[in-house]
Amino acid sequence: MQRKAPDFLFLFLTLIFTAFGLVMVFSASHVIAYKEYGDAAYFLKRQAMWAGLGIIVMIVVMNIRPRFFKRITPFLLLTVFLLLFTVYIPGIGVELNGSRSWIRVSGFSLQPGEAIKPALILYIAYLLEKKGEGVRNFKNGLMPPLIVTASLVLPVVLQNDLGTAMIALMTVMVMLFVGGARFLHMLVLGVGAAVFAGIFILLFSYRLKRITAFLDPWQDPLVSGYQLIQSLYAIAHGGLYGSGLKSIQQFFYLPFPYNDFIFAIIAEQLGFIGAGTFIVLYALWILQGILISVKSGDFYSQLIGIGSISAIAIQAIINIGGVTGMLPITGVTLPLISYGGSSMIVTFFLSGLILGISRSRRERQKDRKKSAMPVLKHATHLTSRMN
């Protein structure tokens, strides 16, 4: 394949959202940062460092041909699996915000569980291309990727990071569906995953409180419902045009306004028009990622692209849904916008994969016919798969 320049629109929007995120992190955190660390730019400096590192990662990844990742997929899976257990090493693993899913290295907190997203995306793409129509067979086609997925997702669940586990699992489900798995199989798996999630929530009272707080936050306004109520206050206070870069929720009312709930600050400061514009541009970014993926010259690249953009989109939907009270709060960040190094590095890695796919040029017309746009073909023949 010949190589061309990366997709301009996707790259441009990636950098725009990165810059916008830095502005919003500073706006949401400077009061807290000054009180706790004596430096109003404390969180901004750290986020800028992660953004710079992430951009380097993105540039490196987008200059690697997608098929290179086939050779390192087994090594990557093993590395990520072992990395998940570093959170239990004394002196390295730490518990933050109720989750034993962090390690501390040189003063920085990292979340190893974030790495399961790119690892699973590359593995599922590799396996689906290898199996082809065999994925329609449950025992020999669908069970192997499900076993590997479970081996990476379950440790994350046990670390109390249900949000990351949900994103990874839903991303795998999307990839399996567009990769040719039977609709009935996917329906059964979806129901099974929902039942498992329900049992897990019932076993842990604080998880159940999050669900009840989502349904009625005013039932416990000072504890389980407090964060959502303050988020809704922020959104309401923003009105149509917003309050500008100064807002009430900066002043210690909304917990972690620069992290999981940064969209509430966006809505408060920029109003309905600003927040709506942000969502439209974010949706455009997601759509462009999808278009890049389905226009790729081979099935493997299509699956990598669809998996990467699905992971980003699912995480954004879960985050904004939780902030606005439409979904339960899970504690996941808003990609490229929220404060957080691990999430940002992974998002840039996934963006680099998509940009790398956009650089691949199909050399012959017969290559286009051979690929036959498998993702679109499966969607077109949806009814034939419902058996």
From TrEMBL:
It is an enzyme of class 2 (transferase). GO terms for cellular component: cell division site; plasma membrane. GO terms for biological process: cell division; cell wall organization; peptidoglycan biosynthetic process; regulation of cell shape. It catalyses: [GlcNAc-(1->4)-Mur2Ac(oyl-L-Ala-gamma-D-Glu-L-Lys-D-Ala-D-Ala)](n)-di-trans,octa-cis-undecaprenyl diphosphate + beta-D-GlcNAc-(1->4)-Mur2Ac(oyl-L-Ala-gamma-D-Glu-L-Lys-D-Ala-D-Ala)-di-trans,octa-cis-undecaprenyl diphosphate = [GlcNAc-(1->4)-Mur2Ac(oyl-L-Ala-gamma-D-Glu-L-Lys-D-Ala-D-Ala)](n+1)-di-trans,octa-cis-undecaprenyl diphosphate + di-trans,octa-cis-undecaprenyl diphosphate + H(+). The chain crosses the membrane at residues 7-28, 48-65, 72-90, 110-128, 140-158, 164-180, 187-208, 261-287, 299-324, 336-358. It is a multi-pass membrane protein. Pathway: Cell wall biogenesis; peptidoglycan biosynthesis. The keyword Transmembrane applies. One of its GO terms (molecular function) is lipid-linked peptidoglycan transporter activity. Keywords: Cell cycle, Cell division, Cell membrane, Cell shape, Cell wall biogenesis/degradation, Glycosyltransferase, Membrane, Peptidoglycan synthesis, Transferase, Transmembrane, Transmembrane helix. Its EC number is 2.4.99.28. InterPro entries: Cell_cycle_FtsW-rel_CS (IPR018365), FtsW (IPR013437), FtsW/RodA (IPR001182). The keyword GTP-binding does not apply. PANTHER family: CELL CYCLE PROTEIN, PEPTIDOGLYCAN GLYCOSYLTRANSFERASE FTSW-RELATED. Peptidoglycan polymerase that is essential for cell division. Belongs to the SEDS family. FtsW subfamily. NCBIfam families: ftsW. This is Probable peptidoglycan glycosyltransferase FtsW. It comes from Candidatus Carbonibacillus altaicus. The lineage of its organism: Bacteria, Bacillati, Bacillota, Bacilli, Bacillales.
